[in-house]
Every structure is written in C-alpha cells, then in structure tokens.
Amino acid sequence: MASVLIAPDKFKGSLSADAVARALEHGLREAAPHTRVTRLALADGGEGSVAAACAAGRFRAETVTVAGPTGRPVTAPVAVDGRTVLVGAAAVCGLGVLPDGRKAPLTATSRGIGQAVQYALAGEADTIVLALGGVATTDGGAGLLQSLGAVLARADGASIGPGGQGLADLHTVDLTAARAALAGVDLVLATDVDNSLLGPTGTAAVYGPQKGATEHDVRELDAALGTFVRRLEAAGVPDAARLARTAGAGAAGGLGYAGLLLGGRMCSGADYFLTLLGADALLATSDFVVTGEGSLDEQSLSGKLPVALARRARRQGVEVHAVAGRCTLSAERAAAHFSSVQALTELTDQDCANDGALSARLLAQCGRNLADRWIGGRAHEAARSV
Question: Closest by alpha carbon to 10, among 34, 43, 39, 37?
C-alpha cells in the first residue's frame, strides 16, 4: 500500500492550505482508494500560518481583539501550545483586514502586533513566534514597539503619529521598557523574505507599492525609516544600522527590524514551520509527497515552502510532486526539485485564482492524475469536465 504525504501551502485568494490538501486527497483516494494518505497543512510565515499550525492538531486557536492597521479593533486568531504562542501578522494588520479594503500606506500601524504580544506575555509565554508576512504596514515596527512601552516621541515630547509617516517626526527614542517586557522570552521571527530595511531593496521600495504607496510615498517612507535608524543610533543603540542591513529586517513592513531590536532571532519561515509541524518524521514514513502553492516561480526557488520541503524530502530519498495554481518555472528548473508539476492553469481556461470551488475541483483532478500515473490507480478520462 502506497503511503502519501500531502503537504501544501495555501493557494492565496482561493483556498487555505488545509482545503488544498483535502481537495488533493479527495481526488487521489477516488482513483486509488487503498492509498494511505497523511495531510499536513503548511505555511511559511505569511497568511494562513496560524490556521496551518492549528490544523496539525498540536496548537489550539485563541482569539484576541487588538488594534488593526488603521487603529480600528480587529479580532484575530493566535495559535497556542503550552507556553508557545504564534502570532500571524497578516491576521492582525494585514491587507485583508483593512476596513473596506482601503489601503493606508503612510499611516497603517503595527500597534496590534504589540498588543497580541502583550496577550501572549500575560499568559506567561516563554516563546513567541511572529509569522511575518502579508501586512498593510510600513512603519518599521514602530507601533509594535510603542505597544510594548517604547518611547517614540517628537521634539515636543508628544508621541509620534501612526505608520511610517509618523517616523519622519521622530526625535527621541527609548526602547528600555519594550526590551524589558521581552526579557527571557525567545522571540522567533519567521519569514521567507530577505530584504533589508532601507534602500532600493528595502521594505518601502519593494513592498510599498502593493500596499498602495505611490513613488512619492515610497521615497517618504524610506526616508522616515532612515530617520528611525539614525535616531536609534543617537539614542545609544549601537547596532541599529547593522540590524537595518540584516536580511529579513524589511520583512512585514519593518516588523522584522523591530523584532531584531528586541533581541529576536530571524529564521526561514518555511523551515521553521516544517520543523514545528513534524514534517521530517512524516517524510520518513512516506513513499512520496505532494506539495504546492498558488504560484511556483523564481521566488519559490529562494526557499519558499514547496522547495524547502523538496530539499528535506530529497535527503530522505522521497520523491516530491508539485501542484500549483500556475507555474512559470522552466521544465529544467522545476525538475531540479520535483518529479512532476501540475498547474491548474493548464487544466482550464477559466480564472481560478479567486475561485475556491473551481480550484478545489481542479485540485481533485490533479489528485486523480497523480494516483493514475504514480500509484497505479484506476484510469480516468483524459479530459474530465470541471
């Protein structure tokens, strides 16, 4: 009996990682009903991280009410396992929780992340994981720091305004209270981007436009973040400039930078979640693996979840098959990691990127195809109506 591990990331805009896994399993079992299937919903630190942690059964979901990116309250899930708490930045201050979807590139705040961290600390958490991705903010984590007691003040002594725009008025910085709040806590910064804080590859330049920033806004935000770094140096934070250059400091609008200032450790979100959710043990008992994400492209090769999983599987001699909403990798580059790749865009002329029901049907078809070709399942029609 074949043993298959189905371990995908989400298909952004259409299906959660767990829904992707269930759809693939449905098709695979239909074609090869005696196959032993294990599902593992995965995440890489972006949207869906809390859901993936809870779907695996180890974590339980709790909800917190905190300030959203515009200051309005939002209710967001966090994942709790004993004294470990995982906070998904996207659920607190992400683009998806903006009121009416209206972007606020200059004023969106990360204050709610700090409030979620306070919630974890009140429960005596000794490990706090910040899943960094999918945010609407570019404030360098200033809101997070303020929530934890940091002083970020203008020349007149008043607190700076919200968002990256507020950093332009920054005059006085004191991180003492915020650092004390996290003393003895293992702060894990899980991300799969390696952008620094400032400059042409920094958080404002690379990610600002998708948050609604114009070219002028990007320049303003980058300059304000530069002011933040200089004020930190003037306040006696000797590693402020070095941390700003650190890979990942620009993650989640600079939340990565704030986390580093608080003593956090940066890690690959994909590898962190693979380890956290026990992927290696599951690989050891699997004949092959099915993984995937919404888009397999050049960015996937820099350590996104499917490739990170494929590397681990290769070390154990387990072949990996990929399913994606779309695939723009050349056949040669894809073959370096996957035994096969199926893209939903090759199965339909319809737009499935934002259609969960259609995506689920196509994924089930991919599951049947995998079973027929690689397990020896019951043959299905070459063309199946979707």
Answer: 43
Q: What angle do CA 276, 267, 80 make, to 5 degrees?
A: 40
CB within 8 Å of 201: residues ≥ 6 apart: 195, 250
Nearest to 345 by CA among 299, 274, 292: 292
* 57 backbone dihedrals φ, ψ, rounded to 5°: 95, -15
Q: Does residue 317 carry a pLDDT above 80?
A: yes
Residue 331 has pLDDT above 80, yes or no: yes
Bin 343: left if φ > 0, else alpha if -120 < ψ < 50, else beta.
Answer: beta
Q: CB 278: neighbour CB atoms within 10 A?
A: 12
Terminal alpha carbon distance of the chain: 29
- Same CATH topology for 3-40+279-375 and 49-270: the answer is no
303 pLDDT higher than 90: no
Q: Please provide the DSSP assignment of 82-117 as one string.
A: TTEEEEEHHHHHBGGGSGGG---TTT---HHHHHHH
Give the span between the Cα atoms of 10 and 15, in whole angstroms.
6
Q: Which of 367, 370, 243 is nearest to 319 (CA)?
A: 370
Residue boundaries of the structural domains of the chain: 3-40+279-375, 49-270
Q: Alpha helices, DSSP H only, in 190-325?
A: 203-207, 215-234, 240-245, 255-261, 269-276, 279-283, 305-315
> What one-character DSSP code corresponds to residue 46?
S
> Is residue 386 scored above 70 in pLDDT?
no
CATH 3.90.1510.10 fits 49-270, yes or no: yes
Please say whether the beta carbons of 297 and 330 come within 8 A. no
CA gap 108, 384 in Å, rounded: 46
Separation of alpha carbons 17 and 319, rounded Å = 20
- Beta strands of the chain (E only): which ranges? 3-6, 36-39, 60-67, 73-81, 84-88, 127-131, 151-153, 172-174, 186-191, 265-268, 288-296, 319-327, 340-343
Fold classification of 3-40+279-375 is Rossmann fold (3.40.50)
